[in-house]
Fold this sequence. Notes:
The chain is of the alpha/beta class.
Amino acid sequence: xxxxxxxxxxxxxxxxxxxxxxxxxxxxxxVGSYSxxxxxxxxxxxxxxxxxxxxxKHGAQLLLTHHPLIFEPISRFDMESFPGNVIxxxxxxxxxxxxxHTNLDVASExxxxxLADMLNLQRVEVLQEMxxxxxxxxxxxxxxxxxxxxxEILKNLKNxxxxxxxxxxxxxxxxxxxxxxxxxxxxxxxxxxxxxxxDMLLTGDVGYHHAMEAKSLGIVLIDGGHFRxxxxxxxxxxxxxxxxxxxxxxxxxVEVDGDECDPxxxx
Length: 267
């Protein structure tokens, strides 16, 4: 059976209910029709004109992103600027656009759960709980099977995230056992991570003041980049989504945008 967009949305709702999203967020359907048949899902972190054009090129009917295309009500539709140009091309190419954002961040098996799994953390718990729901909340914290030096952990992180450089607050000879992870922007949780016994926090968007806070608390703080921490986990999520779709007997494939790049370059 070829699923309809409504079927895909229902599946995403099972994984990451929209009610878990932050009040300012806008996950779910951005552009499209609930009755649209979906033979291929193209997955990208952002709904850019480039990712949409790639979706069209790869024969997809759905562009699934992490970051929503539309955050606020549109007061005018400018076809020559974002997001109007993306919406126009989506309509022309008959491509639906759906986002799974902060609801997927906090979901029991969402972005941060996946990051913790990629690091092979044991006894994983939610870092910042929410709504009194077990297993739901922002960030994850857990333990390595055995302690290791920060320098060795950095080598592994670079491989996982696909980066050559990482921002580091802390000595590379420091022994690390307990690790907290927050995909995207989570440096504000450095104090909570320290309170919960973390030797290290991996996140992105680390600013000067959070770096100084980490230094004063004696916790290692790693800036893996907003894009890279989320892209790595969202790619794994896409593969797991593809398996869920196959298990349901649906004739729909999932493909990840391999050409999507971090808007920030380092030289």
